[in-house]
TrEMBL record, chain A:
<dbReference type="InterPro" id="IPR007627">
    <property type="entry name" value="RNA_pol_sigma70_r2"/>
</dbReference>
<keyword id="KW-0804">Transcription</keyword>
<protein>
    <submittedName>
        <fullName>RNA polymerase sigma-70 factor, ECF subfamily</fullName>
    </submittedName>
</protein>
<feature type="domain" description="RNA polymerase sigma factor 70 region 4 type 2">
    <location>
        <begin position="120"/>
        <end position="172"/>
    </location>
</feature>
<feature type="domain" description="RNA polymerase sigma-70 region 2">
    <location>
        <begin position="27"/>
        <end position="91"/>
    </location>
</feature>
<dbReference type="InterPro" id="IPR013249">
    <property type="entry name" value="RNA_pol_sigma70_r4_t2"/>
</dbReference>
<dbReference type="Pfam" id="PF08281">
    <property type="entry name" value="Sigma70_r4_2"/>
</dbReference>
<dbReference type="GO" id="GO:0006352">
    <property type="term" value="P:DNA-templated transcription initiation"/>
</dbReference>
<comment type="similarity">
    <text>Belongs to the sigma-70 factor family. ECF subfamily.</text>
</comment>
<dbReference type="InterPro" id="IPR013324">
    <property type="entry name" value="RNA_pol_sigma_r3/r4-like"/>
</dbReference>
<dbReference type="GO" id="GO:0003677">
    <property type="term" value="F:DNA binding"/>
</dbReference>
<keyword id="KW-0731">Sigma factor</keyword>
<dbReference type="InterPro" id="IPR039425">
    <property type="entry name" value="RNA_pol_sigma-70-like"/>
</dbReference>
<dbReference type="GO" id="GO:0016987">
    <property type="term" value="F:sigma factor activity"/>
</dbReference>
<keyword id="KW-0805">Transcription regulation</keyword>
<dbReference type="InterPro" id="IPR013325">
    <property type="entry name" value="RNA_pol_sigma_r2"/>
</dbReference>
<dbReference type="Pfam" id="PF04542">
    <property type="entry name" value="Sigma70_r2"/>
</dbReference>
Amino acid sequence: MPTINEEVVQEYIAGCRKHNQESQYALFKHFHSYAMGICRRYAHNSDEASDILSESFLKIFSHIDRFDESKPFKSWMGKIITNTAIDYYRASLKFVQQDDVAAYENLGSEASVYGKLAYDELLVMIQSLSPAYQTVFNLYAIDGYSHNEIAEMLGITVNTSKSNLHKARRRLQELLDQRTRTAVDNWEDNKD
Amino acid sequence: MKDKHPIDKLFKDGLHAPDLPFDQKDWEMLANKMRPRKKRNMPLLIWMTSGVAAALVLAAILWPTDRHASMKDIQENASGPVQRNTPDSRDTSGAPNTVPPNAPTPIRGKGAETEKLALNTPTDGAAISEKPIDAVSLYPGSPATLPPPLFSPVQNHKPIVAYTVTHLSSNGNEIPAVARTIPATIVSDETTPRRANGERSNTSQRSWALSVIAAPDLSGTQPLSGKLSGNVGLIATYRFNHWLSISGGALYAKKLYRADFADYRPTISWGDRAAIPDLVEANCGVLDIPILANITLKQYDQSSFFVSGGISSYFMLRETYNYIYPPHEYGYLQKPYTLHNRNRHLLGVGNLSIGYRRQLNASLSLTVQPFVKVPLTGIGNGNIKLYSTGVAISADIDLTRRNR
């Protein structure tokens, strides 16, 4: 049985199918935070995130007739946004082929464990990755795609996907360590 | 089930469902993209208009200024049947516009029509006789009946000479000469009407003009530098007197420029991210609404020099930015970012220019006007200090004269 929230969304979607602009605005506003959250993870700055967001909703509104109402709208929308973000950077996605993938297989668990960090801090770190690392990390670590799916989506090999993921993690680990050192230095300065 | 990598878990938990505030600008961007847009080739239009205007200016400079031709026309008018009988009548031959120093004076001649013309050179027309005229007696306090001048040079005041043109009337009756006076056909270097006491008539000097402008320029973060851009538009000018006028209008400006990212300061903070671009390339469509004061510096018979100063409001109709990132293993990253109707800068740009205007005929002149536009505030999404330096070329139509 659909919740009240889902009923409202179904109403918005029905309006969007009729190209009703008020419904489009309502749907956009309802999912803005969720959608923008995805866009920011894949983008390099706020401007580009806004651009990806509008491109995504343009596709959502123009293909809303293809949405299967028996499935969750949020998942369908999330997939469109992810694909739009990939398309946005596709031209600049230059993946580095890594042959010796096995070398990375056992390194993952060495990473330090950090407490919960602020959203903005994490966003800055992920946006500082190169487009290839950022995309693979987003797809695998946050959006839950497998290496096989990522390889298919990006037109790369599974090994390339794995090596890019590993390099992304290593870079993020460096940034986290750097942040910790800065925090410790600041703490010691204040203590003195 | 395999445990999730700690880094993956950290970022997934922290970034998965953020609570971000709704931004109306995001909807406006989407709404703009949903509107179908007609493609326009503005640069081509700008350059074509500039080319035509430049050709016209060249033609104006090379235009032979034959004052004798004007005199010939006058003689023809004088010796033939006189059809014009209003003080506003004027020479339509393209001769320099002139204004009579006199108002109609009743002159009676038996069995004849009389026309009074003030000329600075005598003519040899058989029907024309010469008679010196006292300027004061010719101007009996009715300056409002005189046509206003487009220009009002004050140089070369020469003695006024009147020519009385005698025609045989058809019925032999005396006709008051005042009814046949043709002030506008009078040729004189003195193109500004004077009152009886010698003062100029401000009322008659007031006029409206409309200018069609094309202005290629260089736009960039420094004066006299940047990429080639352009402006086209319409400017209306109201002339108060022979030295002062004000102008206002609307120009569509294409601003193409490249800026260091250090000069680019978007309102939304870029943050301390590593992925900082080197350069920003901009392509903006701007509605420029200027308000200008114009002061005539030097006035000649058919040309003048002037300075203009004023202030413009910029309405950023469309802004497209390309962020160019430093070379990296993933190559150059270039992706355009476009905004529509996002930024407005009221009175945000200063204008300064000097100009040369050349009279083509009674109601049309051409102007060449080097200018610089100085930012008084940050322009566009990046709050860039955007300078424009160029040359405006305009065709100016004197609406007051045309209407008469």
